[in-house]
Every structure is written in C-alpha cells, then in structure tokens.
Design a protein that fits this description.
This protein has about 220 residues and is α+β, with helices and mostly antiparallel strands. About 50% of the residues lie in helices and about 15% in strands. Strands 1, 2, 3 and 4 form a four-stranded antiparallel beta sheet that branches.
Length: about 220
C-alpha cells in the first residue's frame, strides 16, 4: 500500500510504495519476522505504472506494533520501493508548454509604440492561455491544500505576464496622451528588465523548492 502521497514537487518527485505483512492475532512471541534482503524482492519485470519508473533498490524493515485494547507487541514485515517520474518527460509534458506560451507573450516587447493596442491584446491572451493550462495541469492530480511546484511555477508566470499587461496599458495611455517619449523610454527599459526578472524568479523558486535545506545552511554559514 502507498502510505503517503507527496505532491509538493509535482510534476516531479518520488513516491514510496510500501507492502506490509503482519498478523494481528499472533504476537511477537508466536510470530516474528526477520530482515533478510537476499530472500526478499520485487518482480521488477512486471511492475508497470503509466508515467512512472521504479528504482532497482529494495528497503526491508521489521517493525513492532502495538494495537489499542490488545496487549503485547506484533511483528510486521515491510518492503519499500521508490517510484519516480523521469525528469525530462515530466518537464516536456507539463512545464515546457508554459515556457512557450510565455515566450510568445514576451514578443509584445518587440512591437512598436503604434501597435500598443495589439500588444495589450497579445499579453492578455497569454494570461488567459496560462490560466487554462494551469487548470488542465491540476486536473490530473487530486485536490490538495498546499501549493505544488507546478502552482508556484505558474504564479511566477502570472506575475511576469501581469507586469507585461500593465506596461502595455501604460504605454497605450501615454501614447494616447501624446507623451510619446515617455512611452518609448518605458518600452526600452522594460524590454530587457521583465524577461530577466522572470528568468531569475523561476531559477530562484526552483532552487528553493528542491534545495531549500542547502540554501538555508549556506546562509547560516555566511
């Protein structure tokens, strides 16, 4: 049985599959299991789960359990195996389309001031595409109370494209007000700042998600 589903790193991550064997009638004095990996194993050739692979490593443990209203201890034998999603396929299927959508949205920074209206339309359409993709992405997993890596990844993209929409709207207002120089200056300045900020936020969030312990240790060492 799967004792706990860890979804914080979705669409990446690992899950531990546990198989427990025990007897609630025979106490430890009557039945006790021994750990011996040489006599234990999984039939890896017949382990198939769509989208997952299994590590060829087996963990074997023996536990002593106590049950309410029953005296004595009971021996329990547990086999554990790790299932994981291949990093490349998880990235291509779940996150790479988001990067393509964002790059299309960032094409708005290449448009001229005269096309400020079209630029606003492009960035707004990009935001709608991100929302729809996010809904589709989360539809493949059960509801969860905490943010997954995919959720945080999408939030960074929401922030970046929202900034792009705001810049497009400001440029449109400045152009209509006849303040062409300010609009051109805003376009030149944000053309590089927003994509760089987006990239740094994605990198920082990813490093923190998968290496927060090492990052905290590094800060403490400083």
């Amino acid at each position: 049985m799967l004792t706990y589903v860890y979804r914080e790193n979705y669409p990446f991550g690992e899950q531990t599959l546990n198989l427990s064997i025990g007897d609630k009638q025979a106490r430890r004095d009557d039945l006790i299991f021994n750990e011996d990996p040489s006599y234990s194993g999984w039939d890896y050739g017949h382990l198939h789960t769509l989208g997952w692979l299994f590590r060829n490593k087996l963990d074997v443990h023996v536990y002593e359990d106590a049950y309410p209203n029953i005296s004595g201890l009971f021996s329990r034998y547990q086999l554990s195996i790790t299932a994981y999603k291949p990093w490349l396929s998880a990235f291509i299927n779940n996150l790479f389309p988001v990067l393509i959508i964002m790059l299309v949205g960032f094409l708005s920074f290449l448009l001229s001031l005269e096309a400020a209206g079209e630029r606003l339309t492009l960035t707004s359409s990009t935001l709608v595409a991100l929302i729809l993709f996010h809904i589709s992405l989360n539809s493949s997993i059960p509801p969860h109370s905490s943010l997954t890596f995919a959720d945080k990844f999408m939030i960074v993209n929401y922030v970046a494209i929202s900034i792009s929409i705001a810049i497009s709207a400001i440029m449109l207002v400045l152009r209509d007000a006849g303040n062409t120089d300010s609009a051109l200056g805003l376009n030149r300045w944000t053309r590089w700042v927003v994509p760089v900020l987006w990239t740094l936020l994605l990198l920082g969030m990813t490093v923190w998600q998968f290496n927060s312990g090492q990052v905290m240790a590094w800060f403490k060492a400083i």
